[in-house]
Amino acid sequence: MHVLGVLDRASSDPSRLEAVVDRVVDRLSRAGRVGVVRYDATIADGAHESLTPGGDVTYELGADGDWAAAGTGLSIGDALDTLARDCAYAVVVGVSMPRYPSVVVAESDDHAESGPVLASIASPADLESVPLREELEGYEPHETLESLVSELKRSPKADRAGAIATFTGRVRAKDDPEDDRTEYLEFEKYEGVAEQRMAAIREELEARDGVYEVRMYHRTGIVEDGADIVFVVVLAGHRAEAFRTVEDGIDRLKDEVPLFKKEVTVADEFWVHDRTS
Question: Are strands 89-93 and 34-39 parallel, antiparallel or unpaired?
């Protein structure tokens, strides 16, 4: 699922932001299901005016990240995790996200954002000249183990499959009890080459007898202690080929895909020389 923020930096006409959101959702919905997450700093204790819904799913989050209506403590990240199971795109309204690009409504280009800016516009009409979907899909998607499993369950080949096997790699805090605690890992990829190599591995694994589909995903950027880094998911006829392909998939990803890792502990930071390639 690809994630796009929509931000208002003009602050003079709230209806303009809503018109931009509607236009963005309409454009993206032509290619797949769209979920909308709305962040409103004025929402508190479930008392708020209804916001214009857009897309197939709309979550309204209060300033503390809770669901506005239910108060379940769902964060924006949690909402995205939920949407990723069924949506091709998510539009997050009202908050900057360092990992994902945004469309910014502003009077000029003189504004600061915490994440990449896909387009800076003054009106909804300005979006017509922006290849919105094409540019958005150039950014890393938001995936979870559940979203990848859900995708394979919807496969036309799923009727022939008796097994789905998965691998999840995560950030461990320590190798040994006496080690300094790892705060986060930071991953960089060799742009273009990493994607090509991962696609080639996937294609070769899917050519095996009894293996129907394979999904592989590795996060880049900062991944904090305890968070998931990498997933391999295999749809196969039987468990034997599913388990074997999962193991071969993660081994080949680590050996062949050019990804570089920096480790940051409470005491030090360093690039790990035995890169995952």
Answer: parallel
- Cα–Cα–Cα angle for 52, 58, 64, nearest 5°? 95
- The tally of CA atoms less than 13 A away on the side-chain side of residue 236 is 23
Per residue in 44-56, pLDDT tens? 333 333 333 345 5
Confidence of residue 125 (pLDDT cuts 50, 70, 90): very high
- CB atoms closer than 10 angstroms to residue 244: 17
Residue 205 scores a pLDDT above 80: yes
Please choose, from the candidates 89, 107, 103, 115, the residue with its C-alpha nearest in 3D space to the C-alpha of residue 37.
89
* CA 80 centroid distance within chain: 8
Q: Closest Cα partner for 201 from 216, 188, 190?
A: 216
**Rounded to an integer, what distance in angstroms lies between the CA atom of residue 46 and that of residue 173?**
37
Q: Could you tell me if 63 and 40 are in contact, meaning their C-beta atoms sit under 8 angstroms apart?
A: yes
Task: Give 60's pLDDT tier (boundaries 50, 70, 90).
Answer: low
Contact 171, 227 (CB under 8 A): yes
Q: How many CA atoms lie within 13 A of 143 on its CB side?
A: 20
Vertex 229: Cα angle to 228 and 235 (nearest 5): 85
